[in-house]
Amino acid sequence: MRGTVWVASDIHLGEAVPQTARAFYDFLGRARREAGTLILCGDLFDAWIGDDHALRRPPRWLATALDELRATAGALPLWLARGNRDFLMGRALADALGARLLEAPAVLDTDAGPILLAHGDEFCTDDLAYQRFRRIVHTPWIQRIFLALPLGARRAIAARARARSRQARRSKPMAIMDVNPAAVAQALRAAGCDTLIHGHTHRPAVHALELDGRAARRYVLPDWEFDHDAPPRGGWIEIDAAGIRLEQL
Description:
Purple Acid Phosphatase, chain A, domain 2; six-stranded mixed beta sheet; globular; LpxH-like; single chain; five-stranded mixed beta sheet; Calcineurin-like_PHP; 11 strands; 39% helix; 23% strand; cell inner membrane
């Protein structure tokens, strides 16, 4: 991926976040003017119950989102990676938008050097209950059964899962929901990279690491929230020949 690459994550688009959506669409317009490539690194949507939900008769908020993404994919290469909330996004959606599906974790060959890109939830290995849940919902035959259910049943299951997730997060220590340093080091080592970019934790920062005696960096993408929390927040990471920069709104 040569030239200027922008990476954003954790926008959580849905019917209940119109201000967040508006800020994100402004960002997409800016990306169309200034970026060479855009990667959306998971949790673009607050929940995803199957591509057919979007491609049949999407609700108004989703139709608007798809139009904005389609316009962006028409202006520059747009890559979609899956997160923990939209892991069921598939190739049908990407093809309908003119985008490309990115199987993350992935190593990006950029003008700033090789970069390991991931959503980030795979590194939260101290949260054993979540990792068990993650293994279950990423099982192919379980996904096939879920996607075969009527849309109403899928909506109900997704709503219950989100409610249980919110309740569980309130009772867990913050540290257990962050990435595990050993898991990060293992992933960097296996990928042959000294730089990691991820989202998921909603803790934007640049962390200096030491990996096998070498300097390394971990960049954490911000989440987007303009509707319920103050102050509003959002941002992205810009990659080019001058380096890697965390940009926050």
